[in-house]
Fold:
Amino acid sequence: MADLPTATLGRTGLEVTKLGYGAMELRGGAMARRDVDPAESGRVLHAVLDAGINFIDTSPDYGASEELIGEHLSSRRDEFFLASKCGCPVNQPPPSAGQRPEHVFTPENIRAGVEQSLRRMRTDHLDLVQFHISPSRETLEQNGAVEALVELRDEGKARFIGMSGTLPNLTDHIEMGVFDAFQIPYSALEREHEDSISDAADAGSGTIIRGGVARGAPMVDDGTLERYPDFWRPMVEARRDRWTDADLDDLLDDMTPMEFMLRFTMSHPAMHTTIVGTANLDHLADNVAAARRGPLPADVYEAAKSRLAAAT
Structure:
């Protein structure tokens, strides 16, 4: 069986698998699509590492995910790179469905969040700490936020610093020249950041893609749509319609829509890793098999981009 393809995560020098794992699907609660049994979460997390995936991304905002990673994978900590976020609420109750928790980028909250993540995940360091929800450059500078994260890096609690960013602030973030890696949304059905991924890589930063299979939008019908939190449904429905309008079926060959979506994301020449979340062992196995097949053939990739642009 072929190993998973890898890439160097920009100037971090970390050799990461191009398929990473996003732990958001383990969070449970009002924000989740489904309840996840803690024991099943453990089986999924071990299966992630057993498949050869070596990059796991999470956040304090993702419910129980950090505690589950600590409970199940702390004994295997040397097998993977661990990324989390900062600026998230600390010691606050989980948000209600449809509500985004307030993020605070003061040095005190940044430190409290990182130290909470270390305790939860039973580790003495995070390989990457990323600012969450794309705060503006002004917010970062007014709070001394970057300096606070650099201080934690100098203490050995974080190896590298990053940004989970989106436009319009992402342009400023790249120009700041301080971030070792960027987490950026991108998929065949969400291509607004396609050029920004290249800009980040050209600046020497690592690129981490989230949303690479568009939350399963091509496979969604009216019944499965009801399983998504209310605030996600319009977005997922719009992406499903875009997939239909692009009329890509003849490009799939022997691929499922989900394999096509993942391999499309992996075809971006400046993508280093894409984090795909699941709490289902079969889906994880499918993602691994698709990643092992690598990028789409160049002609299929270009044809898909042309049709998707017309559909948009």
